[in-house]
UniProtKB/TrEMBL annotation:
The chain crosses the membrane at residues 12-35, 41-61. Pfam families: DUF58 (PF01882). Keywords: Membrane, Transmembrane, Transmembrane helix. InterPro entries: DUF58 (IPR002881). The lineage of its organism: Bacteria, Pseudomonadati, Bacteroidota, Sphingobacteriia, Sphingobacteriales. Residues 208-350 form the DUF58 domain. It comes from Pedobacter frigoris. This is DUF58 domain-containing protein.
């Protein structure tokens, strides 16, 4: 008896229509004091309401398994991207039902209004689609899915509980990775804002002898093959392969700054993952180093099939530290690990010229042995302040200071160029596009 009470009481809820019916019955009983001619009408209405509630109860509880629900969650979520989730609901009742679904998503999303409504006809099913955008890497725990069912009478609601707790890891943005991989393979990277780079000369990496096509460089004509075939034949060259591309990620406190829900470290991690993938597609070797007050994770450059998975597993665990970057430790690690000239993409951030000058001696030493590309970030809040209309003296002061800091960022680019160091100053949301674009430009110009 106690178990039956738990089953019915715990998952039984009163509907709005029932409260409306109770209100009507109460009103009729009140009116009988002033309108005696109503007679037994209030009693009849009350008995009818009880009968309808009984029928509604039997309709909902007559089937032990009236509905079925399944939540389809990916094995892992992509950080900073819209991830699609599905809730499949099937109606086993012999009548149409109205449903409401509450999905107990992880607390990291801070959403309390995830409520879905739908109507299902008898013996039919429906799939509810929605998206979630995580902004932190780590483990996310999904709770139960609560399904609330009403019959056509709508007087009471029965609740069904489905699914148990499920833990899903959030990895660096692998959805971006797939998008750029497909475009890199098909040479359609310009569709996402990556410019086509004019090739200066051509590589000495021979590919094949092919038929001449209008537009081919006549200097590449293979006269011996032309004489044999009787048609113009040209030598085809490809980009040099097996070049080393290292992503170095600064995870000190300067990378803690947030932008659109993600930290600068997360943007750097997503961009380095995409760059590593594009480098592997282009037959180069990709590697990784993380640095803060000491050298963190190191993945030696390679192009084996498992290399990208190895890099992703390392990046999944990385967190921001709260101390200064130890550039001396980074320089020692690079000299000890990287023996041949490589492209080194260093993701960091400078907010002042003095911060750059502290690191510049070590950057110049690294640039002597490798092609160094420094990637740092525009302060988008400062840019917004400089574009804001000026109305009073305080606005003039704020606008002037913001303009000074923004101009200082541009001076940093010139200072790095003066010492032969390449750089990218980019907004966080355009980081991936700008980094991949520069990598392709470097490949085309054969700078490595």
């Amino acid at each position: 008896m106690k178990n039956l009470f738990k089953i019915y009481y715990k998952d039984l809820f009163l509907g709005k229509r029932l409260f409306v019916g109770i209100g009507i019955c109460v009103s009729l009983f009140l009116f009988t004091f002033f309108l005696p001619w109503l007679g037994d009408l209030p009693y009849i209405a009350f008995c009818a309401l009880i009968a309808l509630v009984t029928v509604d109860f039997l309709l909902l509880y007559n089937h032990k398994r009236g509905v079925f629900l399944r939540r389809d969650v990916p094995e892992r979520l992509s950080n900073g991207d819209e991830n699609e989730l599905n809730i499949y609901v099937e109606n086993f009742y012999s009548f149409g039902i109205n449903i409401g679904v509450i999905d107990e998503i992880p607390f990291q999303f801070q959403k309390r209004n995830l409520w879905f409504k739908a109507t299902l006809n008898a013996k039919t099913h429906k799939t509810i689609n929605y998206t979630l955008r995580p902004t932190k890497r780590g483990e996310y725990v999904f709770g139960m899915v609560r399904l609330y069912v009403q019959s056509p009478l709508g007087l009471i609601t029965r609740r069904f509980n489905f699914e148990t707790d499920k833990t899903v890891p959030v990895y660096p943005s692998f959805l971006q990775l797939r998008k750029y991989e497909l475009m890199a393979i098909s040479n359609r990277l310009s569709e996402v804002g990556i410019k086509k780079i004019r090739r200066i000369g051509h590589s000495m990496e021979f590919d094949q002898v092919k038929n001449y096509v209008k537009g081919d460089d006549y200097r590449t004509i293979n006269w011996k093959a032309t004489a044999r075939r009787g048609d113009l034949m040209v030598n085809s060259f490809t980009d040099e392969k097996s070049q080393h591309v290292y992503s170095i990620i600064d995870k000190s406190r300067v990378m803690k700054m947030p932008f659109d829900g993600l930290t600068l470290l997360d943007y750097a991690i997503n961009a380095s993952l995409v760059l590593s993938n594009v480098a592997l597609v282009k037959d180069d070797k990709a590697g990784l180093i993380t640095i803060a007050e000491k050298t963190g994770s190191i993945v030696s450059a390679d192009r084996r099939p498992a290399q990208l998975g190895k890099i992703m597993n390392v990046l999944y665990k990385e967190k921001t530290r709260y101390l200064e970057t130890n550039m001396e430790a980074l320089y020692i690690s690079i000299r000890g690990l990287i023996k041949q000239r490589s492209l080194i993409v260093f993701y960091t951030n400078f907010e002042s010229m003095s911060a750059l000058n502290r690191q510049l001696p070590f950057l110049k030493r690294i640039a002597k042995f490798h092609l160094l590309l420094i990637v740092f970030f525009e302060n988008t809040e400062l840019k917004t302040l400089t574009e804001k209309p000026v109305n009073n003296v305080e606005d003039i002061y704020i606008n002037t200071i913001a303009g000074k800091f923004a101009y200082e960022k541009k001076l940093m680019v010139k200072e790095l160029a003066k010492h032969g160091i390449l750089s990218i100053l980019t907004p966080p949301n355009k980081l991936t596009i700008n980094v991949v674009n520069r990598y392709l430009a470097i490949k085309a110009q054969q700078k490595i």
